[in-house]
Amino acid sequence: MNTMTLWDLTGWEFAALAFAALLVGFSKTAVSGANTVSLAVFAAVLPARASTGVLLPILIAGDVLAVLTYRRHAHWPTLWRLFPAVAAGVVVGTVFLMWADDGIVRTSIGAILLLMAGVTVWRRRRADTEDDPDGVVTRAGRIKARSYGVLGGFTTMVANAGGPVMSMYLLSAGFRKLGFLGTSAFFFLIVNTSKLPFSAGLGLIDADSLLLDAALVPFVVPGALLGKWAVTRINQRLFEQLVIAATVVGGLQLLLR
Asked: Is 65 left (phi over 0), alpha (psi -120 to 50) or beta?
């Protein structure tokens, strides 16, 4: 794999990756979507293709901590309706990667994130009351879940960037903080774990990348604890604003790179 090993990194490069790992933990237990900054840091310090393989186990570590923290708040009807569409999105993403270069991939994902952030803001301003998450069982809810599921599978396959997509879906479905975090925690633990054999088969995960992961994963823990502390002090409106802001920042970062 074309990547730097742990021993090739300078002190500043390792510090940047450690901060990005800490931010992964924070995003998993507080503001989902904030780890778009982590994606940018890893891609800046490491070769872009290799960075996705290094980041994946770190994301899974954050997912495990999030599940342990919010496991009682997951909304499983939403998850079961999302998974088939996500699988389709992964297939679409795989085909897309066969012909699209890095510039097209970044521009496409950035545009999708900004579009969904705008749609979510528009929907939230028009809504007089919060939607019931059980609305996913309606026909309109199923269509929306499939649409976002395909987009989530597509973006997570091509850039580990499915977080903002699913954040927009869960906000648009009317999830409150804990339901939002619990549902997304199980969703990404299952999806990211299922990507491991594919990443290893593509040579994105090997002994060198796992050694670097072993050095960085401990930084995920304080980030997750900080997120758990912060989320109880953030009201629902601020929570939604932070998630949307993180999504916009991620979208702009991808478009402007």
From this structure: alpha
